[in-house]
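User: Sequence in, structure out. Go.
Assistant: Echoing your sequence, followed by the structure tokens.
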Amino acid sequence: MIAHVFVDAENIPPYVTFKVVAHFGKEETLAHKYRNLDETIYRIQNCFYGKNSADTWLCLEMVRAIIDEPNLELIIIISSDKDFLPAIKFAVDFDKKIIFVSDGASHRRLIEQLQRLQIPPAAIELKDFHLSFDPQLERLSKFFPKLTEGMRKFFMSNADKLRFIFVKRGEDLIEIPFVDGMGSYYFGRLCRELKLLESRLKNFIEQNFLKLKYGRVYFMTEEELVEPRPAERLKEYFTEHAADVRKILLKHGENVSDFDFVDGMPFEFFAYMLKENNIAGDAMAARKVAKKSLLAVREDKVFLMTEDELEQAYYNGLDEVDKYFYDHTAEVQQIFIKHNDKLSEVPFVNGMPLAIFGRHLRKEKIIGKGASPFNTAAKSLLAVRDDKVFLMTEDELEMLQEPPNSVGKYLDMNVASVQTINIKHSGRPFEVPFVDGMPLEIFHKLLLERKIIGKSASITRVALRNSLSVRDKKVFIQEEIEQ
């Protein structure tokens, strides 16, 4: 076959030209640059005649070759330009076969322009020099219409590791590109773009004799291919122990699901079962699921918990308040707690720590975070002593009914010294019982209870205006003090 190669050296690197020529059997004549070439094979035309002069010369040389060499069969054009389209039209009219090699980015626009010139698509073969003349990359190019730009770039950047494997989709075997050790993200993306997935990605990987390790997909080794897969081993185990299989409930997150279980089954199988059902991804997570599901792991086997283990598991699962009541079960009694005029019945242990009492009331939603459990105890006939909460004794209850600093209690205790005096306030006189030297606090409460003064009135000023003297927080009749 007689062929001519036309190279637009302005926009094509030398290595592309040499790769194309080597593909057509002239490798022994190649150099690494456009110099010192065999003049019987190569002819270099320097184009220093203005803009687009190289394209003009390219078109001229093509027309000259077609006219001067009637036996010319193949024209190969290496360029990323489109200004030579008239020459292509001329070559097609003379029934010449044409191969156009470019970077592939302009192929779509070129095809549109060829259609406008009414050039049949079969008359010109388009090749991307990134892929063409390399068997592996040529093989990859057939997947490009189905792949996104990101996946194309991934395989192009890993061209030296590129392999082609067959995977199963239903009953069919499908060829796909593959890089050993590629990330599971890229492998899953590839499978989705090629519409291969009919099940979970993890299952698809295992079904096609691949393995997932540390987030990457690899070929299985010979040893791994010979060894039964975990799914097969688990199935064999349940078959061998069919008489011992039972259904149990496993808790994962907020969900509870039932699974087949054999008491004493190997932890390896248990962990694999959870992994396949997207419950636990590793051994540590599988142990946590076992613990939350009231199962015990002993010597790499999984068992139903014994009564002692169940009791301990229950105790470990309690919060601080529940643990306290659990430890003092025999002492628990029911009492009423008063808060915001509402009575609530709650369990109580006489002498329980004030901190536990506070957490208990908050857990029962009786008081809020900012409320004082001390004040709530006092309002609920409970006494706080040494940071502990007790039911009030009879004496404490009696004192509560008539506090020592109450007016009535004070007057009863000093009945022999009680006299009547006049107190004038706001222009009005009032008769009140009085004990010379009575505490200022009791005198203040006395006037408040009789509604002689208001809460904002100054008790010291009221005393002085009524010829009374205040000293050491006590109230005296002034005349006696002056004597």
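User: And one key feature?
Assistant: The chain has five domains: 3-133, 138-226, 245-316, 327-401, 407-482.
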